Amino acid sequence: MKDISEIEVHLSNSTAREMCSLLFQSGVLMKVQVGASIKTLLCEQLGLDKTYVDKRISTIFLNNQPVDDIDKAIIKNNDTLALSSAMPGLLGATLRRNSHLAPLRDTITFKEYRDDNIQAYDLIYIKLFNIILQEVGPFLLQNGVMVDFEDVIDLFDKKMSEKIKGALKIYFNGKKTDINELCKGLKSNVKQKLVLLKLMFS
Amino acid sequence: MGKILRIRMNDLTVKAEELGEYAGLGGRALTSTIIAKEVPPLCHPLGPNNKLVAAAGLLTGTTAASSGRCHFGCKSPLTGGIKEGNSGGVVSQKIAHLGYSAIVLEGLPKDDKLRLVYINKDKVEILPADEFKGMGNYQTVTKLTERYGKVGIISIGPAGEQKLNAASIAINDTDNRPTRHAARGGQGAVMGSKCLKAIVVDDTGAAGVEIKDKDEFKKWSKIFTDGLLKHPVTGEGLPTYGTAVLINIINEAGGLPTRNFSTGQFEHAANISGEQLTENCRDRGGKETHPCSPGCVIRCSNVYNDKDGNYITSGLEYETIFAFGSNCNISDLDVVAKLDRLCDDIGLDTIETGGTIAVAMEGGLLPFGDWDRAIKLLDEDVRNGTPIGKIIGSGAVVTGRVLGVTRVPAVKGQNMPAYDPRAIQGIGVTYATSTMGADHTAGYAIATNIMKVGGYVDPLKPEGQVELSRNLQIATAALDSTGLCLFTAFPVLDQPETFEAIYRMLNAQYGLNLTADDVTELGKNVLKTERDFNTRAGFTNKDDRLPEFMYQEVLAPHNQVFMVKDEELDEFWNF
Q: Which pTM does this prediction carry?
């Protein structure tokens, strides 16, 4: 028996997009090699293109702090990494990586550039916003992300319950099922803390 | 250059005159220079000596993309200082097409009868409008459109008629709805004091704007438009999500004011985010992208429908969502949309009104999150002018005084916009020193580096934030004089040729030889003119401060107070 449950859901594009949006705005857990830089995490572990990271993901927060140098900022376990494209407004421009307006947010800028030489696999929270959510979210969900058990129940049984009824396929621990059975199964298994969720856009 | 149309409400006469000493000015430069020169700084803002100026920008009326801002200026009843506020909508281009650079409203009428002004290419009429008394902006626009057809309409709602400090001036949008507002500073109250319900601008058959060198203008206009369209913010982010895309980002930065600026993160931010707004617009048959004025290629506005597909409001923006959402602890975007609609109809500034409701919540008038009571406060109390409605409509400072609330997030009497300065300290410098009071558009993200305003700023020096804020405010004042939307600043920030296109278009239109330095000088002059007016109105450096609680009360999650010293703030005006 697997140590965590696995759910695979096949949804229409519009419903999958909405679920993707709900998940990544609040944040999902991913098991990654901590002790690596943000750049290494994004390009080598998550498989994002270097040019995409450099040009497109222009606003990055690590634990609520805007990051300028993603080659030097090191990920630790339990960190929250939030990714966004370029944003409008004075603050949007100020929060961008290496913005010439960075002095305006100097007191909250990430500055803990130290290497603790930790090399282990551990969980971190990942949040995606706006265009990055649209472009990277589906890719990460296809490979699977971990979600808090209570949040999954809330998502399937409440927030998305109506829309997910039209799900094309649902698998719970490898067995085909339907939304009602899935919710029952989840509720009877509340001792687990995390669920591996895979979402397929059809 | 156009003419100035002076409308004298004291004797109900009109006169068009040459720009004279105001030649070469437009937008904010024109409104602020007229106010500083012609309005006694110590006058009562609602008295006979105040004036209300509506001005087109220097590029307005041309084919320059996103150049349709309409600028309003007066002595503000909210701050007691000079005020400039601008808005999209369809009216500014029509004013320019008719050959006017500005319309100046002067004096007070001898009676209290409501009037409207009708302007076309042949005449200017001051007409009775008592049948519009107490009418919301939506109905006013519908009735005026029935009478005059497709026209530009500047109007006030019941809040303006009641001369409330938070009253806005509405302009009809490209769908002929009164959703675009010059909202800040109570300019609607000044229009109301002159008993003017509306200005109707009909440019049918008008000559349009003269361009000295059409080929040159066309060339740079294309470069400018291409610059807007290819940039990720103006060509992609803003059209997709609108300004509300900032909710998640500012929340992540710990600077989203929540429950009357008591914390910097809202636990339900995802419910009111730009991403959610876009989903709702798509699902319900609204529009997730929409131009606020003709010729805008950025299209950051939206049309927001309810669950049944019925229209609620348009132009639901980041500032409004913060003001009624996180700041009032309301996590339902549909409710925020309803409150926005009420403000548009009654004619209220959403930032000031949302901030006031939050202060009222802190003062115990209603609990945080009580949206039902918030709706009633606006729709019943403010609209009908009950005593509590008049207090709420008078803004956050007045409401705080009445309810004994000490935590009022205002500067120079104006409630703060949607960025807590304890998280992002640099914006606190702009809030403190702006001539307008706490204003998020006063020091915008203009390309000070490209414009070379003030040169390189060393981020390691403590004075860096003050110097940057100064440079940004100078550059913003210059851009605000062109009629261009502030959002054009983002491509200007990253693409030198887009900035060059601005002054090249001005040169081609007017036959000038402006350089980047001239544009910077214009911005400096505007700020100094405004500062001089405020000084003569009694403001000192002691007014360039944030409210006391922001120096004492730490803000989560960064647990910081505002740390920029008074002496550093006082350095701002050393230029």
A: 0.94
